[in-house]
Design goal:
By secondary structure, the protein is of the alpha/beta class. The chain has 8 helices and 6 strands. The longest helix has 23 residues.
């Protein structure tokens, strides 16, 4: 992609995320938990697909001479795939934070005032070569009623896309928009520059 293509691509992701965030913010707890459970099931079912995609990333990493510590973080195994799935089920088991009210007290006027938790909107997350973060970030953002745009390390592009397919399946099966979680498909660093400046679409950036 050239610079103008990347800008157009990222604008599209942003528009889709903003639209999806409005639906996810209103989603019932049961729908969000259904999506999380379906994501976990898809990840477990597609263990061999995820590990095959990860093998491509590992081959590329070794060809580039990346350090052993980086390759270790990048590697998916049957155990780490199972842990990803279990993590999503643990998120599903958590209480829904959306709408939680705390600190209620009465003002002198007799009005009762408190704090209510509400979704942030669209969260952009930038992370390095740990494919499991794709599932963790997707699950946590969804549970809290947010849409997410995820930019994983370029070294993990195949792994992240395979995990993203499982995430999208879970969202679809629960009747939620697949665009609630989008993984940036280009490894071009210009995409990060666009992500962190799309104030009209992205509410929070987590680097």
């Amino acid at each position: 992609m050239n610079t103008s293509d990347i800008k157009s691509y990222m604008q599209t992701l942003g528009q889709q995320a903003r639209a999806a965030s409005r639906q996810v913010a209103k989603a019932e707890t049961a729908a969000k938990n259904q999506a999380l459970t379906a994501m976990a099931s898809a990840i477990r079912r597609d263990e061999s697909v995820l590990i095959a995609a990860n093998a491509k990333d590992l081959d590329n990493a070794r060809a580039k001479g990346l350090e052993a510590s980086m390759i270790d973080r990048l590697t998916l195994s049957p155990k780490s795939v199972a842990t990803m799935a279990e993590g999503l089920l643990q998120i599903a088991a958590l209480a829904d934070p959306v709408g939680e009210i705390s600190g209620l007290n009465y003002r002198p006027s007799g009005i009762q005032v408190g704090k209510m938790r509400v979704p942030l909107g669209v969260i952009g997350i930038i992370y390095e070569a740990r494919p499991n973060v794709t599932a963790d970030a997707a699950g946590l953002c969804l549970k809290a009623g947010n849409a997410a745009i995820l930019r994983g390390g370029s070294e993990a592009i195949h792994s992240n896309q395979a995990i993203a397919a499982c995430v999208k399946e879970g969202l679809r099966l629960a009747g939620l928009p697949e665009t609630a979680v989008q993984v940036i498909e280009t490894t071009d660093r210009a995409a990060v520059g666009e992500l962190i400046t799309m104030k009209e679409f992205v509410d929070v950036i987590v680097p």
